[in-house]
Amino acid sequence: MQAVPRITVEVPVLGVGAGPADYEELGQHVDALRRPNGLHLTLLHIGILADFSRDVTEWTKGITPAAVATRETVRWLQALPVLDGFPGTAERLIVLGGGGISGLEVDVPQQVHDYQVSLVEGLRGLLDRLLVDNVDDFILGSQALGFRYPHWVPHVAVGRPRSRSREPVSIPPVTVTFGASRIRNGQFLPAAD
Beta partners for 155? Predict the structure, then answer.
């Protein structure tokens, strides 16, 4: 049985450092180093669309049906402007979430931070149109969205931490090149009619 895909707005990693060896060097700090061709930086996590729509319906006590939430969310996602590719730099590995993921903390240009803020503001506007009250509480409480921290830290998940320490690990500075923004698993979105 295939897992239902999660929907995110992300930028793909086109390269880490000067070549494959620079990325493979991270293996001395990370177990189960991920394949470089699937690396990305998440700008906004929507989660499983059906779960997100169900969260909206439950929050609005049925005022906004799941089908309406789905349709409007798809329209909003498909109308998002594209963020052009950009370079970033990473100088340390950080432990993410519950400690099971190690990520490159990436210093990105200001326009990337601005774009990410515009995504969150756009999400707030979408939720307002879907008649969600207390939008910030919904964002932090929605299981689908999975927001746990109000502050966004640009990062690229690269594997599992080798050590149990939650302390950041310094690495030699490395350039990370990103492509244009895209909707991950966008091909699975239903038609917005």
Answer: 105
